[in-house]
Design brief:
heterodimer, A: alpha+beta, Aldehyde Oxidoreductase, domain 4, 3 domains, five-stranded mixed β-sheet, 19 helices, 29% helix, B: alpha+beta, Ubiquitin-like (UB roll), Uridine Diphospho-n-acetylenolpyruvylglucosamine Reductase, domain 3, Enolase-like, domain 1, five-stranded antiparallel β-sheet, 16 helices, 20 strands, 22% strand
Chain lengths: 760, 479
């Protein structure tokens, strides 16, 4: 199954020009239906409290108000928990974080709804709260039981090791900061049906949870998503609440309701990347090779489980990154705190697990005064041996060593490390640092049953094609890639393929567009549908071409065999006349994967994606400020489905990962209120933060050894972890002047300066 | 001439005189809900993300001058006399995309696309400015447009790609003048009033006549009171149309900056006279904010973390204050009475800032320290101006921001240094005094210990930078 054009080419994002001209329609841009109401959610003003009373009488009496509802007004189940219960739509008797949803108001304008919400009377009985991982560990406050993964004999290996180090790294969370905030519009129909336009990565979940809350069968609810203004995991489970609240109010009033969270409410109300504390105890030899390791991962899950089980599992699965850990124990604590329930975010726990082991190898290198890259290389998984992960899946596609070598050569790592050292000899105030970090990221949902997808393809008798599938377009260009697959299979130009909005009415029971799986799953499902139609078209065209169906080739807008041809459109007409269906569903389920959570053993991933980056930074040792001078990236996309889109994911992921580890700092007050809830206080990278010298390339591999769509590889999440190189380059610069015993993320200028002060 | 009671402007090429709209409706809300132009997006509603970027054209002689601005913190009434251009206006005559839009698409400059119209507008304004666009200029022009998807590289490539210039608009300036012929705008809507006097005398009279009126210049701060805090401002007196307040000139050994001069308009003189201050002003907000925001208002709002006041304290700037016909001149460091309080009396306002021109032998340096280089609010600002004689400190003035409830002059530090030899020992002693001078707070921008340490180190940096041949003390400039 090799790619042919337009698959494998740099087709532009289907909406690129529409984005630039403002013609792309987001939910808040849709023409407003007559009678539309605007909804506002009332948020709690304590981190942990019993709610003695929620009285909406005064709110209901305010001008323009059509409805005000709280927990008591939910006809069905008052919970939006995606996997496990515990996320009430409206808090019922108890609030567990500052900013939790208490009630909602629908009014003629958003200003009226907001003004009415201010009149609600809420009485609290304040309870003591737990905010941090450290507090939760002491109090043994968990949303889920701890998990332990052991392989080999870590205790024996640790005690026998000639060298031993222990350390700790705390890693802050991250706000998704999708530019388009959470938004939904619910439109009631006949029979009590509900159409919900939702900016969601998971239309099926929105559909099912709306139905459950409204006490309707799933078939009564349709969820449609044309595009999101960014998702990054933040609209996987977190899109449900606004959609459900809009739908509840629409059901209550019989009128369409739009709910768009403003930036502050969005940041306060919705979950973020889990902050982690990672402690380690490692034994190693004089070359820096890890002999045994004991790792403790503690995640701040917030007040409810949400997706934390799978996220913390993925952190465990990535505690090795590219390194062979023969004797290892990983204990994972899922801490319950009185903060917003943390959720999916690009990498889904993987980045946190990975940065833990990167911290370990970096600390080992500094302890032994070796180049950290050398220690990394010495610990890489082998090809034929030393290739068993802690969860006993064999790494059979390991390209980390050659990818790293290629990048180190292209980025001139060795000479530049020497140049950095020379620069630092001459510069007491400005210091430089350099780091190369690799990554290996497991591809597949670790919950095996989620690895399935459906598609729906129609060919019309003029030869134009309608494409629909369960994947959502959040920015990544999934719609374009899947359209490339369909166009390639039919041998037609991509502009003959109409990309249509994802809707539960066309493809049901879908998985979220998450886990980097979008193209792998939906590309295969759409191909399956296209192949089914192609078979029937070939059957219909065979007598016309005087050929057997198997010999018919679909290319350049025509079906060809034996020197004869018929246009794709004429073939479609012929198929219709032959009374064969020009419509097909397609389906795909990832093969070979399995995982037993009880034993912690299995093959949770179909394959691994690899990448590496080199970053060089400069720090001001008097203020802690810094600049990224240069970044070099080599990333593995197998046979790329679309090099331009893939490079976009790689660059964007790198910068987002860099932001996570540098300037993006979430702060809470002592009472548990999020203080950084706007652009003015939460700083994602801007144009000035990326280097002029920014070299990004795709690794030239023989394609994905696993049988994926045209041997491509998933690219959504892995590049985020390329940003680690910036963090470790900063640490390297600090280490040129001070002994670094602890260096936490995000490495804000303050962290850098304080690390310099610690022991200089 | 009779006053006019409705703002008059062009939306694209079409004249508009919206009759029934609040003067403090934001332009973003107006575009989306009244004009049904959804291309301009709300990303943050506080002038920090650029998704709502639109372009304002205003007559500049026979030509038009264009500024990229944030529609989310721009009041409707401020459109009076201007041309408002949105992403929908960029289309070519044949309906095809504008070259900046084509460039963004061809360079794969969008992913989710939500920020893209804002980038297109910033690029359009940059093109229209006629400036030679190198990478540094592109980075600066786009630093107020946040993108969460692309990592910016393709957008900067699009910015730097060659494209034909737009034909110059020679008709709109005259049409705009005709549209707004008549007296000043004096608008009423329900309980709200907006008055935009056009002379200094009228402005002074208006502020004395209605002491409840809020004086507003560019409105980038007042806009946030409305867009984020949902406050209603009943009486507003706009300073924007007062030509005397928009002048910037050198005279009597001073650089006089009118209180309503936008930052961007002051950059040329600041760069020429005080390069460090010019560089710092480039880090205030974004270009969209600096096209509207003014140095006068940065002083008047008396924020403890305003970026300009510490530099002005070190530069010994004076403020010219006016109430009615009465004028007084005060040193800037006496202007701040407490946390967000000033010595302005009722009806009094800042007319201009007078900065002494640089003198030979005097050294000036200033710094802004924040989490992010561009468009962030400072943790600490520091500014130093000193004269040395015979290896000793003849005179030194030191201003700090972020260290106290107001921008503050570090008198005790100055006192211990004056007359002392300019040596490591003197500076170390002064750093100890500095530590005892301020009690900064801990907040989400910085902890107190960091603020103290940075303040000390910046004084030390000033020493290093004024000592003979020091190794580099500054990071490489923005890439």
């Amino acid at each position: 199954m090799t790619a042919r054009p337009p698959a494998g080419t740099s087709v532009a994002h289907d909406s690129g020009l529409k984005h630039a001209t403002g013609a792309a329609i987001y939910i808040d841009d849709m023409p407003e239906p007559p009678g539309l109401l605007h909804a506002f959610i009332g948020l709690s003003a304590h981190a942990h409290a019993k709610i003695a009373r929620v009285d909406l009488t005064a709110a209901r009496a305010m001008p323009g108000v059509a409805a005000a509802i709280a927990a008591v007004d939910v006809p069905g189940v008052n919970d939006v928990g995606p996997a496990l219960p515990g996320d009430p739509i409206f808090a019922d008797g108890l609030v567990e974080y500052w900013g939790q949803s208490l009630f909602a108001v629908a009014a003629g304008t958003i200003a009226e709804a907001r003004a009415a919400a201010a009149k609600a009377v809420v009485e609290y009985e304040v309870l003591p709260h737990i905010l941090t991982v450290d507090e939760a560990l002491v109090a043994e406050s968990y949303v889920l039981p701890a998990r332990t993964l052991v392989s080999g004999d870590p205790d024996a290996a640790l005690s026998a090791a000639p060298h031993r180090l222990s350390g700790r790294i705390d890693i802050g969370g991250q706000e998704h900061f999708y530019l388009e905030g959470q938004v939904a519009m619910a439109i009631p129909g006949e029979d009590g049906d509900m159409l919900v336009h939702s900016s969601t990565q998971h239309p099926t979940e929105v559909q099912h949870l709306v139905a459950r809350a409204l006490k309707l069968p799933d078939h009564a609810v349709t969820c449609e998503t044309r595009r999101m203004g960014g998702g990054f995991g933040g609209k996987e489970s977190q899109a449900s609440l606004p959609a459900i609240v809009a739908a509840l109010l629409a059901q209550k009033t019989g009128r369409p309701v739009k709910l768009r969270l403003d930036r502050d409410d969005d940041m306060v109300l919705t979950g973020k990347r889990h902050d982690f504390r990672i402690d380690y105890d490692v034994g190693f030899d004089a070359e820096g090779k890890i002999l045994g390791i004991d790792v403790m991962q503690a995640a701040r899950c917030g007040y409810s489980p949400d997706l934390s089980a799978a996220i913390c599992d993925r952190a465990v699965f990535h505690a090795d990154n590219c390194y062979y850990l023969e004797n290892v124990r990983i204990v994972s604590y899922r801490c319950k705190t009185n903060t917003v329930s943390n959720t999916a975010f690009r990498g889904f726990g993987g980045p946190q697990g990975m940065i833990g082991i990167e911290c370990v190898v970096d600390d080992i290198a500094r302890h032994l005064t070796l180049d950290p890259l050398e220690v990394r290389r010495r610990n890489f998984y082998g090809k034929e041996d030393r290739n068993l992960t802690p969860y006993h899946m064999k790494v059979t596609d390991n390209i980390a060593p050659e990818l790293t070598d290629t990048l180190a050569a292209r980025a001139d790592y060795t000479a530049r490390r020497a140049a950095v050292a020379a620069f630092n000899m001459e510069n007491p105030w400005i210091r430089r640092g350099i780091a190369l970090t690799p990554l290996k990221f497991g591809i597949s949902f670790t919950l095996t049953h989620m690895n399935q997808a459906g598609a729906l393809v129609h060919v019309y008798t003029d030869g134009s094609v309608m494409l629909n599938h369960g994947g959502t377009e959040m920015s990544q260009g999934l719609y374009t890639k899947v359209a490339q697959v369909v166009a390639a299979e039919f041998g037609i130009s991509i502009d003959r393929v109409k990309i249509t909005a994802t809707t539960t009415g066309k493809v049901p029971n879908t998985s979220p567009t998450a886990a980097s799986s979008g193209s792998d799953l939906n590309g295969m499902a759409a191909r399956d549908a296209a192949l089914a139609i192609r078979g029937r078209m070939a059957e219909a065209a065979a007598p016309i071409l005087g050929a057997v169906p198997e010999d018919i080739v679909f290319e350049n807008g025509a079906l060809r065999a034996g020197g004869k041809s018929i246009s794709f459109a004429d073939a479609a007409k012929a198929t219709h006349r032959a009374r064969l269906p020009l419509s097909a569903t397609g389906y795909y389920a990832t093969p070979e994967i399995h995982y037993d959570a009880a034993t912690g053993r299995g093959r949770p991933f179909f394959y691994f994606a690899y990448g590496a980056s080199v970053a060089e930074v400069e720090i001001d040792t008097l203020t802690g400020e810094y600049r990224l001078l240069r970044a070099d990236i080599l990333h593995d996309c197998g046979h790329s489905l679309n090099p331009a889109l893939d490079i976009g994911q790689i660059e964007g992921g790198f910068v987002q990962g860099m932001g996570w580890l540098t300037t993006e700092e979430l702060c809470w007050s002592a009472k548990g209120r999020l203080l950084t809830h706007a652009t003015s206080t939460y700083k994602i990278p801007a144009t000035g933060d990326i280097p002029a010298a920014f070299h990004v390339a795709l690794f030239e591999s023989g394609g994905n050894p696993a049988e994926t769509i045209y041997r491509s590889k998933a690219v959504g999440e892995p590049p985020l972890m390329l940003g680690m190189s910036v963090f470790f380059a900063l640490k390297d610069a600090v280490a040129s002047k001070a002994e670094v015993s602890r260096f936490d993320a995000p490495a804000t200028p303050e962290r850098v300066l304080m690390a310099l002060e610690a022991k200089s | 001439m009779p006053d006019r009671d409705t703002p008059a402007f062009f939306l694209g090429d079409s004249p508009r005189r919206p009759g029934s709209v609040s003067p403090t409706t934001t332009v973003l809300e107006y575009l989306r809900s009244v004009e049904h132009r959804p291309g301009t997006k709300e990303g943050c509603a506080e002038g920090d993300c650029g998704a709502c970027t639109v372009v304002l054209g205003e007559p500049d002689g026979p030509r038009m001058r264009y500024r990229a601005v944030n529609a989310c913190v721009l009041f409707m009434a401020a459109l009076d006399g201007k041309q408002l251009l949105t992403v929908e206006d960029l289309a070519a005559a044949d309906g095809g995309p504008h070259p900046v839009q084509t460039a963004l698409a061809e360079h794969h400059g969008s992913q989710c696309g939500f920020c893209t119209p804002g980038f297109a507008m910033s690029l359009f304004a940059l093109d229209r400015s006629g400036a030679a666009v190198d990478r540094a200029e592109a980075v600066e022009a786009l630093a107020g447009n946040l993108c969460r998807c692309t990592g910016y590289r393709p957008i900067l490539d699009a910015a730097l790609a060659a494209r034909p210039p737009d034909p110059e608009d020679t008709a709109t300036a005259a049409r705009l003048r005709a549209l707004t012929a008549g007296g000043p705008l004096r608008m009423k809507y329900a309980e709200q009033a907006w008055h935009a006097p056009e002379t200094l005398t009228d402005l002074a009279a208006a502020l004395v006549a209605d002491t409840s009126a809020v004086p507003v210049a560019g409105g980038t701060d007042a806009g946030v009171w409305v867009s984020k805090q949902h406050r209603r401002l009943n009486a507003i007196v706009s300073m924007e149309k007062v030509q005397e307040l928009r002048a910037i000139e050198r005279r009597d050994g001073m650089l006089r900056i009118g209180a309503a001069v936008p930052y961007e308009d002051a950059l040329g003189e600041l760069d020429a006279l005080f390069p460090d201050l010019g560089a710092m002003v480039r880090r205030i907000g974004s270009r969209q904010i600096r096209e509207r925001g003014t140095i006068g208002a940065n002083i008047a709002n008396a924020s403890p973390i305003g970026d300009v006041p510490p530099a002005l304290i070190a530069l010994d700037a004076k403020l010219v204050l006016r109430r009615g016909a009465a004028q007084r001149t005060v040193p800037i460091e006496t202007f701040f009475a407490g946390y967000r309080r000033t010595i302005l009396t009722t009806g009094e306002f800042i007319e201009s800032v007078d900065i002494p021109l640089p003198k030979d032998g005097r050294v000036f340096r200033c710094h802004k320290v924040a989490k992010r280089f561009d468009q962030d609010i400072s943790a600490v600002c520091a500014a130093f101006s000193a004269a040395f004689a015979g290896g000793a400190v003849r005179d030194i003035r030191i201003g700090f921001g972020g260290m106290a409830a107001t921008p503050a002059r570090a008198h005790p530090v100055e006192n211990i240094l004056i007359g002392q030899p300019w040596t490591e020992a003197s500076v170390r002693a002064a750093m100890t005094v500095l530590d005892a001078t301020f009690v900064p707070i801990s907040d989400h921008r910085a902890r107190a210990a960091y603020r103290r340490l940075v303040a000390r180190n910046l004084l030390y940096k000033f020493f290093l930078e004024t000592a003979a041949s020091t190794p580099r003390t500054r990071l490489v400039p923005a890439p």
